[in-house]
Amino acid sequence: MRIVSLLPSATEILFALGLGENIVGVSHECDFPPAARSKQVVIQSRVKKDALPAEIDAQVRDFVSRGESLYAVDADLLETLQPDLIVTQDLCHVCAASPDDLATALSRFSYPPEVLTLNPLDLGDVWRDILWVGEETGRTEEAEHLLEKIGGQLESVERAVAKIEHHPRVAFLEWLDPFYVGGHWVPEMIERAGGIDLFGLPRKPTFRISLQDIVEAVPDVILVSPCGYSAEQARNEYRNMPFPEQWSATPAARNNRVYALEANGYFSRPGPRLATGVEILAKALHPMLAVSAEAERAILPVTVGASSAPSTTARAASS
User: Fold this and answer.
1) What pairing do the DSSP bridges indicate for beta strands 196-197 and 179-181?
2) pTM for this structure?
3) Closest-CA residue to 261 (of 246, 245, 274)
């Protein structure tokens, strides 16, 4: 089976099911595992790579308002690759090529490939999609084993969290300029990790809030995880923000409980690593907990000091 994945999370799922050799094409954002970078890239972003965060947000809004896709599908290359299966999504057109764009590219095929369209809204949907991909690719047993591993990981975290009485109030920031908060599966992840999400709505998209909204919510913990950013880039971006004194007075800032987290690996992409994301959240919210080394390394405390150049990685508007 020849597979094209237009979605980073789908690429991760396919590799986790042992289908790396079957993948012949990916999106420009498919970067995990590292072997994904060796695949042919069949879509590219129309958003300027070197734009500042506010400019990226403006570009995204402009494309969306005009009903235009943020991505260009290389129809010629796609036709050359002759895939049997294409995996894409219809959740967020800021995250991948829209179904209409893909349909246009496939209209030139004499025998169009099967298209598997994922649309997860919460963790249950993500785990269902893993099984679905497994069924469609003849890897049902591998998918079931992967889900067993994920279930054990989540159960371990939830057992530890169940013993803790204090649940901190959390502001999860998916973008900083302007501010957006995490949605869809992120509020559920925070709840499973023993926190109270102050803004996000389960199964609902991310949305914009103001700095004053955050200050007035009095967060105990602020998590900085802009979509498309590494933890280091998120920390740099935060350090370059011009925060007023009232921000410093919030419990999170006052008690040095502002943390930068990698978005792509553990929060933005609906794939297997969301389970590790729950671990990361649990450790950030409850520092006394013992978690995996991967989760431990993924948390960067933010202290506002000497700044570095702001990141220009593109934002995806869904969390």
Assistant:
1) unpaired
2) 0.87
3) 274
